[in-house]
Amino acid sequence: MAHANAIRPAGARRAARGFTLIEAAIVLAVAMVIAFAVAPTFQEMIDTRRLVGAADQLASDLQHVRSAAVARNQTLRVSFHTSAAFSCYVVHTGGIDDCTCAATGAAVCNADVRALKTIALPAGRIGIAANVASIAFDPVHGTSTPTGTLRVTDARGRAIHHVVNIMGRVRSCTPLGAVAGYRAC
Protein backbone atom coordinates (compact mmCIF):
# COMPACT_ATOMS: atom_id res chain seq x y z
CA MET A 1 0.00 0.00 0.00
CA ALA A 2 1.37 3.43 -0.96
CA HIS A 3 1.94 6.08 1.65
CA ALA A 4 0.01 9.38 1.32
CA ASN A 5 3.24 11.42 1.29
CA ALA A 6 4.88 9.28 -1.36
CA ILE A 7 6.70 11.02 -4.15
CA ARG A 8 4.45 11.68 -7.14
CA PRO A 9 5.57 11.68 -10.71
CA ALA A 10 6.47 15.16 -12.12
CA GLY A 11 3.32 15.45 -14.31
CA ALA A 12 1.03 14.69 -11.38
CA ARG A 13 2.57 17.42 -9.21
CA ARG A 14 2.24 20.02 -11.95
CA ALA A 15 -1.46 19.22 -12.55
CA ALA A 16 -2.18 19.64 -8.86
CA ARG A 17 -0.80 23.22 -8.79
CA GLY A 18 -3.45 24.75 -11.12
CA PHE A 19 -2.98 27.22 -13.99
CA THR A 20 0.33 28.83 -14.78
CA LEU A 21 0.54 32.58 -15.23
CA ILE A 22 0.90 32.17 -18.99
CA GLU A 23 -2.21 29.98 -19.22
CA ALA A 24 -4.23 32.47 -17.17
CA ALA A 25 -3.02 35.35 -19.37
CA ILE A 26 -4.05 33.48 -22.54
CA VAL A 27 -7.52 32.76 -21.14
CA LEU A 28 -7.90 36.41 -20.11
CA ALA A 29 -6.78 37.62 -23.57
CA VAL A 30 -9.28 35.35 -25.34
CA ALA A 31 -12.06 36.50 -22.98
CA MET A 32 -11.23 40.16 -23.69
CA VAL A 33 -11.31 39.59 -27.46
CA ILE A 34 -14.72 37.93 -27.19
CA ALA A 35 -16.04 40.70 -24.90
CA PHE A 36 -14.93 43.45 -27.31
CA ALA A 37 -16.45 41.58 -30.24
CA VAL A 38 -19.81 41.17 -28.48
CA ALA A 39 -20.04 44.66 -26.89
CA PRO A 40 -21.25 46.55 -30.02
CA THR A 41 -23.89 43.91 -30.71
CA PHE A 42 -25.03 44.03 -27.09
CA GLN A 43 -25.27 47.85 -27.18
CA GLU A 44 -27.27 47.68 -30.41
CA MET A 45 -29.65 45.21 -28.77
CA ILE A 46 -30.12 47.57 -25.80
CA ASP A 47 -30.76 50.51 -28.15
CA THR A 48 -33.30 48.45 -30.11
CA ARG A 49 -35.15 47.48 -26.93
CA ARG A 50 -35.31 51.15 -25.88
CA LEU A 51 -36.68 52.15 -29.29
CA VAL A 52 -39.25 49.35 -29.39
CA GLY A 53 -40.25 49.99 -25.76
CA ALA A 54 -40.91 53.70 -26.38
CA ALA A 55 -42.79 52.95 -29.62
CA ASP A 56 -44.90 50.26 -27.95
CA GLN A 57 -45.74 52.59 -25.07
CA LEU A 58 -46.84 55.36 -27.45
CA ALA A 59 -49.03 52.97 -29.47
CA SER A 60 -50.56 51.60 -26.28
CA ASP A 61 -51.21 55.11 -24.93
CA LEU A 62 -52.93 56.13 -28.17
CA GLN A 63 -55.25 53.13 -28.00
CA HIS A 64 -55.93 53.80 -24.32
CA VAL A 65 -56.77 57.47 -24.97
CA ARG A 66 -59.19 56.46 -27.72
CA SER A 67 -60.95 54.01 -25.37
CA ALA A 68 -60.88 56.44 -22.44
CA ALA A 69 -62.50 59.20 -24.53
CA VAL A 70 -65.44 56.92 -25.29
CA ALA A 71 -65.65 55.59 -21.72
CA ARG A 72 -65.56 59.09 -20.17
CA ASN A 73 -67.77 60.60 -22.88
CA GLN A 74 -65.21 63.40 -23.11
CA THR A 75 -62.87 64.54 -25.86
CA LEU A 76 -59.30 63.63 -24.96
CA ARG A 77 -56.22 64.88 -26.71
CA VAL A 78 -52.60 63.81 -27.11
CA SER A 79 -50.27 66.79 -27.67
CA PHE A 80 -46.66 66.50 -28.85
CA HIS A 81 -43.77 68.81 -27.94
CA THR A 82 -40.10 68.78 -28.88
CA SER A 83 -37.20 70.86 -27.54
CA ALA A 84 -33.42 70.60 -27.58
CA ALA A 85 -33.47 68.88 -24.18
CA PHE A 86 -36.33 66.39 -24.64
CA SER A 87 -39.42 65.37 -26.54
CA CYS A 88 -42.70 64.63 -24.80
CA TYR A 89 -46.37 63.98 -25.22
CA VAL A 90 -49.22 64.89 -22.89
CA VAL A 91 -52.59 63.17 -22.68
CA HIS A 92 -55.09 65.82 -21.56
CA THR A 93 -58.54 67.31 -21.70
CA GLY A 94 -59.09 70.69 -23.32
CA GLY A 95 -57.92 72.31 -26.51
CA ILE A 96 -54.89 72.07 -28.73
CA ASP A 97 -52.80 74.71 -26.94
CA ASP A 98 -54.00 74.04 -23.39
CA CYS A 99 -51.08 71.81 -22.29
CA THR A 100 -47.36 71.82 -22.92
CA CYS A 101 -44.24 70.37 -21.31
CA ALA A 102 -42.08 72.39 -18.93
CA ALA A 103 -38.27 72.31 -19.04
CA THR A 104 -38.41 69.52 -16.45
CA GLY A 105 -40.63 67.40 -18.72
CA ALA A 106 -43.70 67.82 -16.51
CA ALA A 107 -47.04 68.88 -17.99
CA VAL A 108 -48.11 72.50 -17.67
CA CYS A 109 -51.79 73.06 -18.42
CA ASN A 110 -54.29 75.92 -18.31
CA ALA A 111 -56.52 76.20 -15.24
CA ASP A 112 -59.54 74.17 -16.38
CA VAL A 113 -57.53 71.52 -18.23
CA ARG A 114 -56.41 68.25 -16.70
CA ALA A 115 -53.26 66.38 -17.74
CA LEU A 116 -53.88 62.64 -17.48
CA LYS A 117 -50.43 61.40 -18.46
CA THR A 118 -47.10 62.87 -19.49
CA ILE A 119 -44.18 61.03 -21.06
CA ALA A 120 -40.88 62.90 -21.50
CA LEU A 121 -37.88 61.39 -23.25
CA PRO A 122 -34.47 63.06 -22.86
CA ALA A 123 -32.79 64.06 -26.12
CA GLY A 124 -29.98 61.90 -27.40
CA ARG A 125 -31.38 58.39 -26.98
CA ILE A 126 -35.03 58.29 -28.01
CA GLY A 127 -37.16 61.05 -29.51
CA ILE A 128 -40.75 61.50 -30.60
CA ALA A 129 -41.74 63.78 -33.47
CA ALA A 130 -45.15 64.29 -35.05
CA ASN A 131 -46.46 65.96 -38.18
CA VAL A 132 -49.34 67.36 -36.08
CA ALA A 133 -49.32 69.37 -32.84
CA SER A 134 -51.98 67.16 -31.27
CA ILE A 135 -54.62 64.55 -31.99
CA ALA A 136 -58.10 64.74 -30.47
CA PHE A 137 -60.17 61.59 -29.89
CA ASP A 138 -63.95 61.95 -30.22
CA PRO A 139 -66.01 60.50 -27.36
CA VAL A 140 -68.97 59.45 -29.51
CA HIS A 141 -67.27 57.57 -32.32
CA GLY A 142 -63.69 57.10 -31.09
CA THR A 143 -62.40 58.83 -34.23
CA SER A 144 -59.33 61.04 -34.33
CA THR A 145 -58.84 64.54 -35.69
CA PRO A 146 -56.55 65.16 -37.44
CA THR A 147 -54.85 62.03 -38.68
CA GLY A 148 -51.12 61.99 -38.10
CA THR A 149 -47.80 60.23 -38.36
CA LEU A 150 -45.77 59.93 -35.18
CA ARG A 151 -42.10 59.01 -35.42
CA VAL A 152 -40.16 57.41 -32.58
CA THR A 153 -36.45 57.58 -33.39
CA ASP A 154 -33.22 56.50 -31.70
CA ALA A 155 -29.67 57.90 -31.71
CA ARG A 156 -28.71 55.54 -34.56
CA GLY A 157 -31.34 57.08 -36.82
CA ARG A 158 -33.66 54.08 -36.82
CA ALA A 159 -37.36 54.88 -36.51
CA ILE A 160 -40.74 53.34 -35.88
CA HIS A 161 -43.70 55.23 -37.35
CA HIS A 162 -47.22 55.13 -35.96
CA VAL A 163 -49.83 56.25 -38.49
CA VAL A 164 -53.10 57.24 -36.78
CA ASN A 165 -56.02 57.08 -39.20
CA ILE A 166 -59.37 58.89 -39.05
CA MET A 167 -60.90 55.92 -37.19
CA GLY A 168 -58.33 56.37 -34.41
CA ARG A 169 -56.55 53.14 -35.26
CA VAL A 170 -52.77 52.91 -35.18
CA ARG A 171 -50.68 51.20 -37.87
CA SER A 172 -46.98 50.77 -37.11
CA CYS A 173 -44.08 50.38 -39.53
CA THR A 174 -40.35 51.10 -39.84
CA PRO A 175 -38.65 52.88 -42.75
CA LEU A 176 -36.71 50.46 -44.96
CA GLY A 177 -37.38 47.59 -42.53
CA ALA A 178 -34.78 49.00 -40.10
CA VAL A 179 -36.30 47.43 -36.96
CA ALA A 180 -37.09 43.73 -36.86
CA GLY A 181 -40.68 42.81 -36.09
CA TYR A 182 -42.22 45.80 -37.95
CA ARG A 183 -43.41 46.08 -41.53
CA ALA A 184 -41.38 48.26 -43.85
CA CYS A 185 -42.91 51.68 -44.59
Summarize the structure.
With 185 residues, this protein is of the alpha+beta class.
In words, what does this structure look like?
- By secondary structure, this protein is an alpha+beta fold.
- Helix content is about 30%, strand content about 30%.
- It has 2 helices and 12 strands.
- A 5-stranded antiparallel sheet has the order 5-2-1-7-8. Strands 6-9-10-11-12 form a 5-stranded mixed sheet, covered by helices on one side. The protein has a two-stranded antiparallel sheet with strand order 3-4.
- Strand 10 and strand 11 form a beta hairpin.
- The longest helix has about 50 residues, at about 20-70.
- The radius of gyration is 28 Å and the shape is elongated.
- The mean pLDDT is about 90.
* Assigned CATH architecture: 3-Layer(bab) Sandwich
The proportion of strand residues reads: 25-35%
Morphology = elongated
Element-by-element helix/strand order: HHEEEEEEEEEEEE
* Main sheet record: 5 strands, antiparallel
What is the spatial order of strands in the main beta sheet?
A: 5-2-1-7-8
State the helix count.
2
- Report the count of strand segments: 12
The secondary structure category is: alpha+beta
Spatial extent as radius of gyration: 28 Å
Poorly predicted spans: none
The CATH topology name reads minor pseudopilin epsh fold
Classified in CATH, the superfamily is minor pseudopilin epsh domain
CATH class category label: Alpha Beta
For the record, the count of structural domains works out to 1
Mean pLDDT: 88
| Head-to-tail CA distance between termini | 81 Å
Helix content: 25-40%
